[in-house]
Amino acid sequence: MGKGDRDDEFGQKMDNIGLTTGKKESGMGKYAFGTCLTRPRVVENVDLTNEITEGGRRMMLEAHPMGGHVERHLLNHNTAYYDTISQLTVVKENGWTYSMNTASYHIKKDNGLVFYGINGEELEFPGDGSVTSDWKLSNVVESATMDTFELPFGRRLTTEVETSLRATERENISFEDHGHRSLSASAQLCDKNHASDCKTCIETQDAWCKSNSWDSSCVAGCEGPTKYMAKGCKEECAEPPVVSVKAKKTKEVDTQKPVDCVVGGWTAVTGSCSVKAGSAACYEKETRSITTQPQHGGAQCPAEGNERLVECTCEPVCGDGFLMPGEECDDGNASDKDGCDHNCMIETGWLCTKEAFGLSECTNGKCECSEWGQGVCQQGTCLPVKGSDLTPACVNDAMCQLSKCGDGIQSGIEQCDDGNKVSGDGCSATCGIELYHSCNGGVGQKTECSKMRVRKDFRDLTAAEKELYIEAVNVLKKQGVYDLIVQTHAHLTNKDYAHGSSGFLPWHRKYLLEYENALRSADPNGKYKDVTVPYWDWAEDTDLCSANGGCKTYDEKGAIFDPITGMGGPGSFACSSHPHGGTIDCSDLPKDHTGADISDFTSECTSGKEFTNPNSGVTSTLPSCSGDVTWGSTGADGITCSATEVAEEGCKPIPDNAVGCVRDGPFAGWMSPEYPENQDNTKTCLSRGLNWNIDSQGYLTGSQRLTQIITQQKEYGSNGGFRAYIESTPHANPHNLLGGHIRSFSSPADPLFFSHHAFIDKVWSMWQNCHDHDETDKENVGSKEYRGTSDGWDDYETDLVFFFPGESSAEDLCEKDKDATCTSCVHGKDSWCSGSPWDQTCKNFCSGGCATECGAAGEVRPGTKLTPVAAGVNCPSCTQSYYQFDDTTLKPKFFHSIHDLGYEGGDLTKPQSYLYAPDQFDIKMKEQKAICDWTETKHHGKEWKQDRRNLAHDEKRMAAPVPKGMKLDGSNRPKDHIPLDENGRPAEMHSHRARKLYELHGQETPARLLAVVDDGTGANNQFCPYDSEGAWTSSYYGWYNDDGIPMIDQEYYIDDKGDERIRYACYCNDGKVWDLDHVTCVSLMPDDSVVFESQDPDTQAILAYWYKLGNKLIEESEFVKDDDSLQFSLDEMTQRECKLLYNEKSKIERIDDVKSGNGATADPFTNKDGHAVGPGSRAKFLEGWGLAPCVGDNEVGCVLDGLANDPCDTTST
């Protein structure tokens, strides 16, 4: 078919539906519609409404199907006139003007009229219309449901059209330059892409719509109130009526006269008075119309437009969300029990914000003051709050006063308020919760804080903490309790159990706890109630040495040995004996490099010296030490010095194996009797070795060896495993190498012992945490967590061995040759005693192995002696004591976890559970790839957290079966951290209220609140709250009941209406706890990065080196399994550690024994009197402490062959 044929077919179709198609134009190949205007012409504006309506009416009677006639009013159409219309201008009530170039018109079946624009516009006047506002303007192209065809100008017509249509081709003239609006840009007002009062209203009432594409809830607001819009925007979004329709028709005129724009007067829009968004005032809308449009270059319409807002007086409407005069509150609804009732009155026991023209925020349980969360009941009658145990609310504002930090009532923007502005008590001077404190309370209550039982690295203690601890130790010494505790460790029955057996770790955990309890009870007024034992991280000291290419002495990098701020250094030259412990001879003291006596030494030895205690500040005279007795032994050789070394390095010659009294630091002058009752007349001084030079004996264990042991030893073991590894070289070296008391079983006589064993206990807790052994309840512990030796005496359910020597008989038989039976027994225990006057070692047998023969009563429990007594009972000069040893909890299972240790004497105000504050070693170890899983759970720390929701005690637990589909692992958290409601819209979260509180008071919201994400229900039924930036998370706690049904914990909470409800319980992870408002998880411990960066930069450097090296070794490993790669890296790093310490610069070659010894066959060390005072080699030392290699099937008092070897033994320079 050719082009002309198609045109003919098109014309035929037009004729078939009653359209006048006009004539076919020659050469155009298409049909022209209407009259083709070829002469020059101008247009004039004519009011189209008048042209239609003033033409008169015509009545038509139409037969009705049911009988009779129906009267129809039809327009009197002048189609010849319509043919001349080229453009139409429409003005709406809001002053907006639209223009369209006409393409065609359509006389409808009901005699209505529709003009079509060339861009798809439609302007319709109904058949029964009579006024201008009947015109309807749109640009929606109708959807054809019947056969269609296209007109040349692009309009779509349907065969439903039954009347005539006239159309002319028009030039598309732009009206934008004349200030008219483009219809295609001004569709319905309910449109995000169209700037209007409607858009402003929608996005003001529902902020979500402003930053997102409009959903159905946004669009619904155009029709009135929604779930998210208290008022809705029906008025603002209603399409304004048409007030003027002007036609431009063709007229043959010769001149064009300019016509200026003329506007009408302002007229108020009825019912438009309302609160303007963002303004605390009411405004109403006024409009004006354009009575004359500008033509032919006439003056344009005013730039200010045809609409404005003027201030007006609003009538209050309860529930519209705007607080106005006459209303106490307006929370945007007409509901009761939410703080603001249906009459917009504040309900009893509630507090609502009262910002003029603002939306009232109401909360339960606070004072009804204008300052939300800030008002405090100070006077007047208070009413109880239903369903709440919070401070009752005041009756009215006049009875409230502004809350201030330190008034004892926590306000909404305080973390706590304990009634003072003093820091250090848990709630700081600025009302913030302090580290290492657990607080109870909440908004409207007085905060009560208690210090958590936290043991810190000695080097991290504050000056005040060091002073208080050392003071408590000295007080305990004066009470005689300290020496009784020492004897508990030294007692033969106890020491055999507590060393070289599986009971080593739980026995010393119990022992440390009793010592700590004794310190805390040393003052009846509670001065020391928060004291804890600081730990001595000797691995960190060794790390410092490795970072500096080696150290000369043990105290070079050890903060705990500082004579001013620590516990003092090695033994005194002026009060020393050699070899090893024995009687001090002032004529046989260390000499200078020429062999001459040193006068200062001799003077102090014979006459004493003036000394100022660095802890107490008290100046006194330390008495002469001539004839006093030093204790213990040391494996360190002597030191000789050349004149150059003396001059340049301050070298001091030291005799072989010299031991001296402690004469500096806070324990200077301490006397340490083997029997506490002899404290007033003992001659034995607290003793330490003189030679602390590392090249004489070697280094203490470093952090890489500890990491290796903690990680590789996955089971507790009996004569192997973690216990044996940690008790051998790492534990033994500080005892063995420092010398003096700490090298004997009377080692607790030196306070260094307790800090050393606190670190051993800390390493045990780290091992337990690393392998999740502490997550096992003490009733369900298996062999991995604890295993006794084969004979069963140190089993998990068998009592720890804690005994104390009984009272001696009335007659003291413990003198040589006084009683034949006693004397014979002692000489049989130690042949030296038979040929020499009995020294203290000989006398010790009277209460030990010869107790029966020497008249001592049978053994008793320590609680018999360690009990509160009056002054003078423990010793003649002893002061009153207040401590009671606990003999009731002695099984190893009671000391399985440091976080589950019960309460002292059953007193719930004295929890015994504790934790260790991290130091640099912990932090770097935690970061190392594949080392350990440090994740904390509910069980881990459940008691020391003092859970304020009363869930710490199982008998109070509420629980329910886990709902179907609930994911306990947190995998159902929302994407992009945006929880959605049932409509798929972002839900308002519980935490929003806390954020608004700060905004209300003009304060910056704390960073911890900005990233809080919760499910918006308050019931935790979708997921547990968390921080979107990863600062903290919380999780459900799932477990199985006796029937094997999975359960989930529940708890009570108060909802927004003040009613008590039950929800799923969420617990903070990683050792954190809920803040007092249960909004965020907060750490009661310092942030890892803060701890790490605040400590020694040398340690930071070496640990960063280990971290990088370890990861590099793991990545480069050829092993297939990650576990194998990890083991390889740990072994290699331990060897690297040895090479760093024992390098060519240090000139130290590590050997198995101290230099004076000769291995496993070494004889005991003897003093100048020839009496044995200690094991003569490291191998013999370990044997004496139950750590020699096992023989055959024996598991008691021994370890597996080679286990006690130091990995640095094989390192050569």
From TrEMBL:
Region (Disordered) residue spans: 962-986
Compositionally biased spans, kind Basic and acidic residues: 966-986
Molecular-function annotations in GO: metal ion binding; oxidoreductase activity
Domain Tyrosinase copper-binding: 499-516, 750-761
PROSITE patterns registered for this protein in UniProt: TYROSINASE_1, TYROSINASE_2
Pfam families: DUF4215, Tyrosinase
UniProt keyword list: Copper, Disulfide bond, Metal-binding, Repeat, Signal
Top-level division of the source organism's lineage: Eukaryota
PANTHER family, per the entry: TYROSINASE FAMILY MEMBER, TYROSINASE-LIKE PROTEIN TYR-1-RELATED
NCBIfam families found in the cross-reference section: myxo_disulf_rpt
Official protein name in the record: Tyrosinase copper-binding domain-containing protein
